[in-house]
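Give me the 3D structure for Fructose-1,6-bisphosphatase.
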Amino acid sequence: MTTAASQVLDRVLVLEMVRVTEAAAVAASKLVGRGDEKAADAAAVEAMREALNSLYMDGTVVIGEGERDEAPMLFIGEKVGSAIGKGPKIDIALDPLEGTTICATAGPNSLAVLAIAEQGGLLNAPDVYMDKIAVGPGYPEGIIDLDRTPTENIRAVAAAKGVEPSEIIACVLDRPRHEALIAELRALGVGIMLIGDGDVAGVIATTNPDTTIDIYMGSGGAPEGVLAAAALRCVGGQFKGRLLFRNDDERGRAAKWGVTDLDKQYDLTELAKGDCIFAATGVTDGSLLEGVKRKGGTMTTESVVMRASSGTVRWVKGEHRI
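Predicted structure for Fructose-1,6-bisphosphatase (322 residues):
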């Protein structure tokens, strides 16, 4: 049965999402390398919000810039769209500038990112850490599991590929908390691509053979985990995530957003279920997308938009007059 919301996902929002991420990326690109993370993020947030409010939908931000008292706009629970109360009800997860530090320092893989689904389709993940593991398409179901050791997961992926563990490349955030993980992987001879930020791009990189990345491992932001899961739903792949809590305040925040099983290992379809759309536009050059370029009186953008129900992936090159 096709719902009103999924009809809108079909008709309108697939390509409109690119316009939204393009707006955020273009706004942030004006501050690339300027060393001001907050200004770049604020520019992206304002541009994305304006673009979302032009769309015919009754949208709710379920993953955004923080709670109402932490963010002036695109906060969790904020209503967006031009048809609030009468249009199709859409849940939205967003990161107007994934990799604020990357943007401020002109590093690689800064993105404007957005995922949408029918109401109830995206997990309301609190702003806490999430333990994550992901692989691209083509592996037997259940090849990865957070209840196994990193060594066991690497050996399973290597066996499925028909190679030795030393031929596997893992992507890991370069953080002190990952010292033990990195040491264990290196003891196996695994190649490690360390990234400073941008773990949405890191997870998605497992789906692109050109990146040579086989597996993503380690902890990062839970909201970014939901965004990455939405992308993997669209193109295939496997993802497991488990929320990590450092204190009672974080546990209380999870309960506020309806998370009751604090030790649950989430599967891909539990983080992003039903029909969903994922879109991203490059702010700076990276493994997934080229960044915004200024050439004379025009700007060029590169975006990707994916849809789960059809498995369609569209690569969109945009040229915008300044």
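DSSP finds nine helices and 14 strands in the chain. Let me know if you want a second pass.
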